[in-house]
Amino acid sequence: MIVRFAGGPFAGRELETTDAPWEGDWLTTGDADWALYVPVHRDPVTGVVLAEVRGTVPRHR
Question: N or C: the chain end with fewer CB closer than 10 Å?
Answer without folding.
Answer: C
